[in-house]
Specification:
The protein has 285 residues and is α/β, with parallel strands linked by helices. Helices cover 51% and strands 18% of the residues. The longest helix has 27 residues, at 52-78.
Length: 285
């Protein structure tokens, strides 16, 4: 998509961006077989809905919300910090952030693919620096846009490799924050199989290692998308269980159940690294 068109979209009011996003969502659903199949299959396999009617309803809502998420994310990358923060109507649990900062041991923000995950990071970086772990997308223009948008704020980027992990450790030891998408499937060897919505899902074990090495506080956060383009409410809560892959999956699942239609069900969360087939079979036995 040409950048000048994206800039025009970014200047629009949020209700219009979300309205156009619904069109984008359904356009993707009907034109991209893999996209639509993943949404339907993921929602079917996790047995979230009690019957076919409820399943069809959740698929419909998910397509709407996924489309909104696509355009709002692009807009956030292109908008100024001041403009983006106007979209945040409330932040519940900010005291957890203040308490964690007071320890000077750093914060590990876990932001799953739920609601608007970009706006939660922008809200924090308006006040404090953050280093975000990221993997470049296959589309070069999109990776460039993402990097430019995130670096527009008080954000540093750490690639998802050994160098990036070292960067995260240094950041935490300075008492600063790092941001991680905990439900992003890691490379083979960088995770373990853990249950997620009753299904085996290859899950990163980096969070537990970082927390153990630094004593950093682990916080879950996401931006709930309010109806009719009214903005977002950001939620922050501590991970009060352990930091194992299973603990984190359980915590994310509880969040997703609050707003299942705002989860990115088009993502290949349950994909399997090919050489790990034997591990998955062993996990399910």
């Amino acid at each position: 998509m040409p950048k000048f068109i994206l800039k025009i979209i970014a200047m629009l009011p949020l209700p219009i961006i979300h309205g156009l996003g619904i069109i984008v969502g359904w356009g993707s659903y009907w034109s991209d077989v893999k996209f639509s199949r993943r949404i339907r299959n993921n929602l079917h396999n996790i047995k979230f809905c009690p019957d076919l009617k409820a399943h069809a309803r959740l698929v419909h809502l998910t397509v709407n919300e996924t489309g909104k998420g696509i355009l709002e994310t692009l807009a956030i990358w292109l908008k100024s910090e001041r403009s983006v923060l106007k979209w945040v109507k409330n932040c519940e649990g900010w005291q957890h952030v203040e308490d964690a900062l007071a320890t000077n041991k750093g914060i590990i923000f876990l932001t799953p693919h739920l609601g608007c995950y970009e706006i939660a990071a922008r809200y924090y970086t308006a006040k404090h620096p953050m280093t975000v772990l990221y993997s470049p997308t296959r589309q070069g223009w999109l990776s460039n846009l993402m990097e430019q948008g995130r670096q527009r704020s008080n954000t540093s980027l750490a690639p998802a490799n050994l160098s990036g992990v070292r960067n995260l450790l240094k950041t935490l030891k300075r008492g600063e924050a790092v941001g991680i998408l905990p439900d992003q499937v890691p490379d083979l060897g960088d995770g373990v199989w853990a249950t997620y919505f009753g299904q085996p899902a290859y899950t990163m074990n980096l969070v537990g290692k970082l927390a153990e090495a630094t004593g950093a506080k682990v916080l879950l956060t996401y931006g709930e998308r309010l109806s009719w383009g009214r903005g977002f409410t950001i939620y922050v809560e501590p991970l009060n269980t352990g930091t194992s892959a299973q603990d984190i999956n359980n915590a994310i699942e509880q969040l997703v159940r609050k707003k299942p239609e705002q989860y990115l069900w088009s993502y290949r969360r349950f994909k399997q690294p090919q050489p790990a087939r034997e591990k998955r079979i062993k996990h399910t036995q």
